[in-house]
Design brief:
Length: 126
């Protein structure tokens, strides 16, 4: 992903990854970031990680630019539909297809008001 950004003309002073290896440093990493990129992957796995590090709370009061790709964008919604991807998930009676996401409509409304944006009746920015 880093290469794609560089090849598109984006320049970074720093490019840091937040994952299980440095999750204890989450607050510091997020506060230092100008942009938070939520990359792709397995939706439920990423969602669990976001819940474990309480990412929703970390981002709630920030004015960071958040970019989501694939699973990252799906986990940004209020309610995430996690379509079964891995073998056996569709047959597993305990597989959770609906998960809590990072954003809720109240947050979107507060953010959009601060930024001078409008929301449509679905709670989406327009």
């Amino acid at each position: 992903m880093k290469t794609c950004f560089f090849n598109s003309g984006f320049k970074f002073k720093n490019f840091k990854v937040l994952d299980n290896r440095n999750a204890k440093e989450k607050s510091e990493l997020i506060s230092e970031a100008e942009v938070v990129i939520l990359a792709g992957g397995h939706v439920p796995t990423q969602n669990i990680f976001f819940q474990q590090i309480n990412l929703k709370n970390e981002l709630k009061t920030s004015n960071k630019i958040i970019i989501g790709f694939s699973a990252g964008s799906m986990n940004c919604s209020e309610e995430v539909y996690a379509q079964p991807e891995l073998q056996g998930e569709s047959l597993d009676p305990n597989y959770k297809r609906f998960l809590k996401g990072l954003v809720n409509r109240h947050y979107l409304y507060s953010y959009s008001t601060r930024m001078g944006l409008s929301l449509n009746h679905y709670g989406s920015l327009y």
